[in-house]
Fold each of these.
Amino acid sequence: MIHGKYLLPNGRVLRYSFHERMIHWTAAVSYVYLLLSGLAFWSPWMFWIAAVLGGATIARELHPWLGIVFSVAVVLMDGMWGKQMKETPADKGWWESIGHYIRNEDDKMPPADRFNPGQKLLFWGFFVNGLLLLLTGLILWLPQYIPWNLRILRLASIFLHPVFALFTIALFIVHVYMGTAMERGAFGSVIRGDVSRAWADHHHHSWFQQVLREEESSGKSSGD
Amino acid sequence: MSQASTEIVRISGHAGSVPGAGLNREFTVCKLVDTTTCIGCKACEVACLEWNGYTFTETTFDNSYQTMPETAWNYWNLIKFNEYENEDGNLMLLMRKDQCMHCADPGCLAACPADAAIVQYANGIVDFQEANCIGCGYCMTGCPFNIPKFSPTARKVFKCTLCNDRVSQGLEPACIKTCPTGCLHFGTKAEMKELAETRAKQLRDHSGYRNAGVYDPSGVGGTHVIYVLHDATNPEAYGGLPKNPQVPLMVRLWKHPLKWIGNFGMIFGVVGVFIHYLRFGPKIVKEDEQHGDAA
């Protein structure tokens, strides 16, 4: 049995490297803080959440800084995944079969690459909304430096910041559900980094086949 | 009048009912600023600092008598000086005492997300409770008059209290107490409105100010600081007093439709994925021994 960069000696497949997992969890932890503190400021009925985060004054101080951490993580993510997240012509067929995907009729789905089109949507949704949240967030962070005659920027940010946040919340709910409850093995892949060969073949057939081809050719050339 | 200041009408960012609402017979308080008899002596600026315990800070000179460009977190009362050429070609030096207007429909309170950081009393005073302020600055954007100011040292927002501490003890605000010309008056809203209208009529009938009138903008439900202006049709000339101030549309949209759409959406999302799990369950991959070994 060949093993190499992706095919691990324990018979499993490396899905996410340590580097990828670190960046994912930097984004995840900062996002959860942003989400909880944001919800506290969003509605009086959720203001109590601020108490859990060290009080509303501290949550207000930390929220922008965690926003910077999240933005940096998202930009790094774009650096490492941006290319693999590009839309391909095959994605159209996947979206047309989305009903099968939802009903867990995965055998009727076209094969997915390293990231399926749904994951691509999640990524770009977080990337675009993340940048818009950063922009509006900077204005809300330091309103005393936005002059009165540019007040329209402050007013627009008050309304748009939660709008962009709501888009990410929609993505976040689906992402957490699929990553934990729905797709068994997915959560382990982003914690330990590896998945079973069957999992790789089932969920990301095209990617797995490519891994096999690459490992086989490199194995041959190195005389393994 | 004095007891009414402890009766609360609205509390910012607060879930549930307001304690003690509607208990007393109330008199709303009001400050009347007659810009036509102000001499710009700035005694009110000094009295405000003294009563509220702020020290004198550096002033900004920009070829005007004005102490600084706008009110500051520790300078709540500012006379705005504006040179204005009226329609007869005469130069007028307009002087307007700028401070919190204590709106009946306060934009600061509407925008504030912190529980009980802004309180509106039944007598009309809108007061910041700094102990509950989280320093987000939303009030600064919600206010149509550019009044709340952020303190970089306290990291909280401050503004004129209409001397709530004095008024609740039956005293008039410090600025009123000190005014030497009597251009500042203090009383119930009805009394001040009547006095202001009388003065405006006098200006129209006897002083040739045909457009003289009272500034009590209805867009924010009326204010508890009202002005008599020589020309009520052009309040902007008085250091940028807005013609039709309102609680900003963006704040209204955020607090009403967006909040309900967002809350519904979030509940729908969480319930939706739960129902999906009940209906379709997880995607479980059958571990096939053949897989991988074939490689």
Amino acid sequence: MTAVEPPVIRARGLGKRYGDKRVLAALDFEIESKGFMLVTGPNGSGKTTLLRLCAGLAIPTSGELEVTAPRETIGFAGHEPLVYRELTAIENLDLYGRLYRVPERRERIGMLLERFGLWEARNERAGSFSRGMQQRLSLCRALLHEPALLVLDEPYSGLDDAGAELLDRELAELRPGATFLVATHDPARLMPLASSRLGFA
Amino acid sequence: MRRYAADVAVLARKDLMLELRARDTLPAMLLFVISALVVFHFALPSHSSDLAAKGLLWVAIVFTALVGLTRAFVAEREQRLIDGLLLAPCDRSAIWLAKAISVLAFLGAAEVVALPAYAAFFSGIGWSTVAAVALADIGIVAVGTLLAAVAAVSRTRELILPLLFLPLAIPVVIGGVGASVVGSPGRYLGFLCLYDAVFAIISWASFEYVVTE
């Protein structure tokens, strides 16, 4: 008999307001360990807010949200690449690698830059990167510490066809070993990987 | 503790590297403090007391610090980079401490130029003034960095920071001017030490609540 693992994320009556504006209301859901939840809905429906709450970047104003994954095991890629424009690609990843205590940091950074096609541009400042390159660097940053919970907000945003196919392969490879919460406007692309879907009206 | 110190070192090094590349904070602070001293030199009547001149030195220091503090969280604010730091598994107060150290470095560098300039324009400065400036710097950056983080998330940040910071800087000016002009400055230097300790502890403890939505 195998023990049932508790859900990685459990929300009960989750709500979030910014001043008078209600962004999320009475939301209930769970993501089991190694689950893949797609979050879909129109702009302004609260997808990003939900992801920020789950990543620990915001605090709910009502209800309960339990995230069992510790902060050091969460990988987050949002609308902004979260990289310093004045630092090079390698300096940005080195900064985060040190903060996350990534073992064999240099090798891991080199491997990710190579995999995401940024090795040649490793010594260029992130500010000189195109939108697509910044998104690739953002994904490198999010995957750097081999997270157990990946929270991705529109991960295909800004990527060209080659970049999108690369991300397809990465997600498929990571799928068996991690838990995913992914907001997307293109659910068809990720549906083969998904185990559940949360739709906002 | 070693882990905390290592995180602070990594974050402070990043801030210093950003300034080295962008060069937009320290030059502004230097230009401001020298300009202010030149203006004061010509504005102050020639027979004015040393007390008045010392007061103007402290006004220049406080406003120079404000220039640096206004820029302190620009990189983190403009692209929400603060999120990247908040996601990292380091104690969030390490972000405050690292930022305070970098602002302290910029303010100290500006004063290395400003104090000799003051001596040239007005009168010489004694050890008590230098000690008071060093102690005041710690208090200014401790409280100022916290308030800069508060202001960074506000739409009216350019207005909010001076409104919050300047009233809290009044005790620094009182202590600084006092230590600079009296014969035995121990009481004023002690007051500045107390101010530093109180505001450093408050800022260190409250930073996490300030930066979390």
